[in-house]
UniProtKB/TrEMBL annotation:
This is CRISPR-associated endoribonuclease Cas6. Pfam families: Cas6_N, CRISPR_Cas6. One of its GO terms (molecular function) is endonuclease activity. Signal peptide: none annotated. The gene is cas6. One of its GO terms (biological process) is defense response to virus.
């Protein structure tokens, strides 16, 4: 897990552009502004980017100009306290269950964001880079952060030169932990964190971008 998240390229309307198996060629049109977001927990990387806000780089077979559009610094990230949260999976998300002890041939990815695996995926990243740790057990996540509605689509993408199945779409969760409890506050912190860091594997190359919002039921 890296201390950085980079989204895929997006068009002027904010739509993510990525190549799935249903697309033969990924095309970027000339004279069009595209953008991507970068989140870093490394202050050195931030300072390097700010000190060099404009440069040219090669993209496929042509050259592109890259300019830093906006920078933000957060001491802490927050999300509203709500009874339910809608999580939109904007790019293919690869959530991996715990690795077994027996010998395996290939990785296993889930096609549904079951709450324990979803939260633990964020929790591992948080606990690696944040001083104050968050501990949420699988059973508590399962019973207090419940999936109540969803609209998900499995997608096949190329990952490490192999075809893997991930998913995009949205899932609605209810948060039923007691108000002001450490469990509720921990889940809320992880949800806020995922808005900037993402979920699952390979967030540094555009996988697992999410948008989490509180909703009123």
């Amino acid at each position: 897990m890296k201390p950085v998240r980079v989204t895929v390229i997006k068009d002027e309307e904010g739509r993510s552009i990525f190549k799935g198996m249903d697309k033969n060629v990924l095309r970027l049109k000339p004279q069009i502004n595209y953008f991507f977001d970068l989140t870093s927990l490394d202050i050195n990387l931030f300072e390097e980017i700010v000190s060099n806000p404009y440069f040219n780089t090669k993209v496929y077979s042509t050259e592109a100009s890259v300019e830093v559009g906006e920078t933000k610094v957060f001491e802490e990230v927050e999300i509203e306290d709500s009874k339910a949260y809608k999580i939109e999976f904007k790019t293919p998300t690869l959530i991996q269950p715990p690795r077994p002890n027996f010998k395996r041939k290939k990785n296993r990815y889930l096609l549904f964001p079951f709450s324990p695996y979803f939260l633990v995926s964020i929790q591992r990243h948080w606990n690696k880079y944040q001083e104050k740790k968050i501990i949420i057990s699988y059973s508590r996540a399962l019973y207090y952060f419940k999936e109540v509605d969803y609209n998900l689509k499995p997608v096949t993408v190329i990952y490490d030169k192999s075809k893997v199945r991930g998913f995009v779409g949205w899932t609605l969760f209810t948060l039923e932990a007691r108000k002001n409890s450490s469990l509720r506050e921990g889940i809320r912190k992880l949800l806020a964190y995922s808005n900037y860091i993402g979920v699952g594997k390979s967030r540094a190359i555009g996988f697992g971008e999410v948008m989490v919002k509180g909703v009123r039921k």
